[in-house]
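name: query_chain
kind: protein
chains: 1
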Amino acid sequence: MTSNSINNTGSAITIGNIGLTGNTISSEDTNGNILFSPDGTGVVAGAASKLIATGTGSGSEVDVAIPTTFKYLIIKLTNYVNSTSAGHLNFRISSDGGSSFVTTGYISNRHYNTWTSSTLANTGGEQTFMPAIYWGSATQAGSAEIYFNHGAASIDNGFFGFSSQGTEFAYVSGCHYLSSLLTNALRFYPENGSITSLTYNIYGLES
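structure:
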């Protein structure tokens, strides 16, 4: 096939060594690369993420269903207010659409700062949750951004994130090491008190 040939065979179009079939762009030559080369200051642009869940919640827990088609999730939490102080916000994963939530197999650590101190807390051993927002407040809204490795059947659910609320700022990281689970729902719940308000936006990334 020459580089300037064009073939149209029903639902497929081939231009040079590039084929277009349905939603798939493919190289037609053996081990061929596909190169995108914008002119001048142009860039190759595309959707970096897709909003897959959004909403608000309150009470003892907030459950969110998520699709399993994305390898990675970005979890953005805002406007978290707790009914009391020290109401850390945690979350758990589910592999049965939220019928039940896993309470074993979590490992995490957090590094948090206040105006006067800095503390590294390595929880060690197995925990019953993953931390989301460290330190709740009844007067100041907290927020967090968590990067979540959306585990497939052979991949652990790893995460890294950061949160802030008032004078508290924390980094959190960890994983759920029971790798046979495919997460399709999340439950956010406070360690103490109840959720007065919480807004969530969850984005999916293919790769």
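note: The first strand starts at residue 6 and ends at 9.
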